[in-house]
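Handout, page 2. Input:
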Amino acid sequence: MTTTSLNQDQLFHEENTIETTNFYNEATEDYEFWSPDFNMHFGYYSPFHTNPFRRDSMLNEMNRQIFTRLGNAKTLCDLGCGMGGTMRYGLRNNNKLKITGITLSNFQATEGNKLLKGYNGQINIGDYNNTGFANDSFDGVLAIESFCHSGHSTASFKEAYRILKPGAKLVVADAFLKKDFSELCIGGSYCYKGLCDGWSLEKLGNIYAVKKMLTNIGFKNINIEDVSFRVAPSVLHVPVAITGFIMKKLFKGESLKPHSFQNLKGSLFALLSGVQMNNFGYYIISCTK
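Output:
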């Protein structure tokens, strides 16, 4: 890769970081319609355990799945924590936990810390690609639908590796491509671009390339689970949530903010992408330093 290409990639990353920050500063309040607990992610359907018609039961089940995979870790870092919905779930269910979250958004940090009052958790403003934490700081790191904002880059996974203690786990839940962008069909490419534009995603990583990247970084015991069918029932809530959100705004006589419209656009393309199982998949990755 040439120096010019590196500079262009860096510039794109910096511009996307600013765009992502602005997006979440403006649109985070909209997520309360998706989840009263501000779970800013999709859910996980477990037969006989969750109700597919109750969105929050599936969203919190995703949280439970992540903490189950983290095992007995007590000092955790949530990279791209949003409003701290996952953090609060973990802290409510385990009083031995201490969780530190990282977000780019001033709004999320300020409002999220208000919701964390009384819990052993704190949200810091910062970049999860450069957290500033010391080496070997945490015995568990999680990232739910956050690394996509930096394109599932090597920098994100390297930083997670750096701040993990030896033998500690990283658990990531996110959407990935099953092939390179250049191999997507016209429909897949259209949905992919709409998804990235709507939600300010730098790109989605190719799951096979990501697995190789994890090995090269030094992670061991890499386990990649395709949970697309588990996540699908919550994705199907998207059109209902979008319609309800718009109707609520119209009923109150409010207009949609630009970032709200952008958020809704991203949600729609997430639904359209989710049905293209040959191009996109949702995975939970667990690996050990």
